[in-house]
Amino acid sequence: MEAHIASTYAAICTIVYLGTEEAYEIVDREKTLEWLLRLKHSKNTIVNSGSECAKVRTTKPGGFEIHINGENDMRSIYCSLVVADILNLLDNAKLREGVGDFIASCQTYEGGIACLPEAEAHAGYTYCGLASLLLLNEVEKIDVNRLLEWSVNRQIAAEGGFNGRINKFVDSCYNFWQGSVAELIDIALKGRGNYKGEWLYNQKAVQGYTLLCCQGKNGGLIDKPTKGPDLHHTCYALAGLSIAQAKSMYQQLYVDKEFENKNAWENSVLLGNLVENKVSRVHPVYNLQHEKVEQAKSYYACLLYTSDAAD
Q1: Which residues are the active-site residues?
Q2: pLDDT of residue 52 exceeding 80
């Protein structure tokens, strides 16, 4: 099988959750860096847009292929940067070069972020783009106010959940793809992207949609009523539920890095004040528990890489 960035991202996340030195040492960091650099686009790229009016166009350098000679879009950027960040490879200048500018070129007139320049803004790509800019510390390259306006308008009043694009139906996976953007914006604005500690959407409505409409009869979570459960929607509906139950703790979590009280009652927004529905808090950039991320990053921070690719 050919190496794939989505599989690599999933493997690294699994290693982070295992959280043992034996698991951490599975990864060959130097070869991972060399491979990531081969995925990187360092010059303008011709892509097929799939559109009848513009079947091909040129994109800026700075993207990543999802595998060697594969497609290039916002998902592969996010997966590549998360892998590099956790493994302490993200200070490599070649890896970072042009990535923020490429992401900025994908912000649309709507305010959200598309998979490629001139495409339609989409929740999943917006999440990947904004999380990537936070990893790069380059959020200033996009218009955060326009992105916020687009994002908060994705919540549908009737159902309480989010859609992923304008004029689309709600879908429980957007609990995370849209809902976590609110906390990412709060991080980007250094704790000023909330109202009295709550995110800029109706958090209890998202919880209601998830708990009342999206639980499968035999377990798992579903996209919407009449659909069946699957692992994708179970994962992201629960991750979004975690975000929707949380309050802003910018200073504690992202400056002081004190995690002991992150799940405490006073730091939560719970539908009906039902503590039995509380789930663990996840880090919005990685969709992993804060402690697990910090433990893995601390381990890899002590390691150096000597590959020629690092020069």
Answers
A1: 122, 165, 168, 171, 173-174, 223, 230, 233
A2: no
